[in-house]
Amino acid sequence: MPEYLSTAPVKGTRDFLPAEMSVRTQVFGHLYEVLESYGFLRYDGPILEQAEVYERKSGQEIADQQLYTLTTRGGERLALRPEMTPSVARMIAGNAKSLSFPVRWYSHPNCHRYERPQRGRVREHWQINADIFGSDSANCEIEMFELIHDLMGALGASPDTFAVRVNDRNLLSSALTDVVGVTAEQLPQVFALVDRWEKTAADDLAASAAEIGLADKQFEKLTETLAAGPALLDELPAEVKENSNLVKVLSSSAASLVRFEPMIVRGLAYYTSTVFEVFDTSPQNRRALFGGGRYSDLASLFTKEQITGIGFGMGDVTLMDFLATHGLTPSPRSEVDVVVIPVDEQLADAAREVATSLRRAGLRTSTPLELRKLGKELTRADKAGAAAVVIVGQEDWAAGTVTVRGLATREQQQVALAEVPGVVSALLAPTA
Amino acid sequence: MPEYLSTAPVKGTRDFLPAEMSVRTQVFGHLYEVLESYGFLRYDGPILEQAEVYERKSGQEIADQQLYTLTTRGGERLALRPEMTPSVARMIAGNAKSLSFPVRWYSHPNCHRYERPQRGRVREHWQINADIFGSDSANCEIEMFELIHDLMGALGASPDTFAVRVNDRNLLSSALTDVVGVTAEQLPQVFALVDRWEKTAADDLAASAAEIGLADKQFEKLTETLAAGPALLDELPAEVKENSNLVKVLSSSAASLVRFEPMIVRGLAYYTSTVFEVFDTSPQNRRALFGGGRYSDLASLFTKEQITGIGFGMGDVTLMDFLATHGLTPSPRSEVDVVVIPVDEQLADAAREVATSLRRAGLRTSTPLELRKLGKELTRADKAGAAAVVIVGQEDWAAGTVTVRGLATREQQQVALAEVPGVVSALLAPTA
């Protein structure tokens, strides 16, 4: 047994110290605000769910290898949620009678997966989840794509730094069947092949296609089809296109927000038509930032009612990487606006009185807990990002005044007590 | 295996649907704001910690009966944190060199304890933790008590609905030894007895005191001492009082904020001098809402450096109960400020254009995803708490106008597109 335990967080988890937490609070605060500007309502749920939920429904890799499970003293087999979707499906199913569909919901949970440690992979990550439940309309797709652009815009991302790549699995099915000549039996395997298309060398793809039983000509046609972009639509049957929300999007005002890419599949099993991913277009970081899709029956574990919808999950690790790559990470906020410094401990009560009046005016205000020499207190206030200090001296205090000093200007002025909040606020105003 | 899984959350955990989440967001948002007005900085940490942390340091009841533990595929024995203090001690110890003490930190974690189900007990609860690390000064105590009053005030609690009951364990030790005549050997047992004093019948207390070996006279004196309040200070040695931060508080401007109660102990092992609890004074809910205290060596598991401080943890269940008891629970926020309704689907793009302009003006704006008759849309907008709807009709749109309708006033007006955000904002203004 070591004398002292390690101060490192458990492998794959992270501590968020105040400076980093301040950055995160700003980033996610912007996202909350945009989501709420569309009428999305925040919800939350427990970290623990019945293990069975994930064993029955999540991908096999999650259930077999990535799930954190435990058995309670009462004998319940529980798991730390690896994703939010089953939890929200449970909540929607359990409250369907009192909800007025469609609903827009979002949350910001932490999720656990026992990942092999590698760059950009953590075991506890935080994820924004946003979903519209209870509507099949293409208006949902259009809103999701507008929302994504506004979310990225709120983080400072210019439209050339990312692309929203979209597809409809039904269009892809039709293309594979009607254009490439894939059989119904081969279809699931070809889908899996398409899902790893962009991450796999051409030789390996060809070998896999041959293994599935595609002829060389078919592999060529497949390659061509996946690279066709919007031109592919001309080759697809009219009735397939009529039933596609994506085709409706592509003829709406939202067409300019997305890029139709027939090779986008998204691994998750529950997507049934529209799928999309937001892609970082910078040369050094070309990868999916986050993605989502439409599902036709989300809560089948919990209810016979079919609950349809569309949603996405946006993980914090890739998002913060994206912001760093593009120089968009905000600075931590200052710790306080103003520090009130008594010249000696006898004036501590007086300093607290001034601090209270500043707080009532909405200013973040601290007073020294361990009083040091004035010079040291000024340095410390400067380091905390304060815009001003208020110095409380014996004679001034007796006369009903204090000294206000701007830390940028280094100018001092004697100020009557009642005027202090106004004078300090003016020093805080931008470009003051 | 049941056909459908239960939609109830795991026992002892809670779902927070949007209406409840909105209430919580407001309540905790007020608390964050007050904490930040004092210069407290928010941090966060992982849900999972090494199980050993709690087995070595937390109370025996937690480690033996209440800890949720699991073993990972990699063989690590982990636990879901039952409290935040060991995590923050780890972080402070690991970052002590780069921190400029004293520091004010707060967080809002969820914590897990396998409690027996009973009223007001949950297994996953959310807790505000606030601490000052690295100072022994009585200024910390004073600030904590001012902070607590401001936190309660921000929730709307008037000063007569709660009391901050305070004690110093060293004063109690001295009182027990010097006034009651308790021996050093008896002291821990008498402390444990005092800790359950208020929840235990007088007969049982007398029997326990006799078991510990106190004479009847001593038990009488003990009863008298614990009820003495501030008068007890007159009976204590000067050197004990000189070293007590609490005695300093009682002679400062903060004396009026607290009530000295010699029987307050607080169960947790790591408190070493000042202890306090915030008590609900309403007749129907007389109980501690939350509490905290001062510790002289918080991070001894992780470092040989002595880290002192003072802090408290404020759980959500008792807090929300308090607000409900006193009629202080805020109403859920409206879902949107305004709904933009196209009269038919052909105008959906036009409605989205208007919605975008409203969002840019800071208004929370939705458009129907599944368009119904205007009357139904108006009812739905009203239910969502919107202050206004904007109706987009074919001829109006061609003329560059829309109809704005106030849902409270039921008055309609034709408005040119550029004026819409201004007109809707005016309808939203309080008492407009």
TrEMBL record, chains A, B:
**What GO MF annotations does this protein's record show?**
ATP binding; histidine-tRNA ligase activity
PROSITE patterns this protein is in?
Answer: AA_TRNA_LIGASE_II
Q: What class of enzyme is it?
A: ligase
The UniProt entry's GO biological process terms, in alphabetical order, are: histidyl-tRNA aminoacylation
* Known EC number: 6.1.1.21
Principal subcellular localisation of the protein: cytoplasm
Subcellular location per the Swiss-Prot or TrEMBL entry: Cytoplasm
Q: Which UniProt keywords apply?
A: Aminoacyl-tRNA synthetase, ATP-binding, Cytoplasm, Ligase, Nucleotide-binding, Protein biosynthesis
* SUPFAM superfamilies reported for this sequence: Class II aaRS ABD-related, Class II aaRS and biotin synthetases
Record-annotated residues binding L-histidine?
Answer: E83, M84, T85, R113, Q127, D131, R266, Y270, Y271
UniProt GO cellular component terms: cytoplasm
- Which reaction does this chain catalyze? tRNA(His) + L-histidine + ATP = L-histidyl-tRNA(His) + AMP + diphosphate + H(+)
Please list the residue ranges annotated as the Aminoacyl-transfer RNA synthetases class-II family profile domain.
12-330
Signal sequence, start to end: none
**Subunit architecture:** Homodimer.
User: Family per UniProt?
Assistant: Belongs to the class-II aminoacyl-tRNA synthetase family.
Q: Which PANTHER family match?
A: HISTIDINE--TRNA LIGASE, MITOCHONDRIAL-RELATED, HISTIDYL-TRNA SYNTHETASE
In its UniProt entry, what is this protein called?
A: Histidine--tRNA ligase
Report the gene name.
Answer: hisS
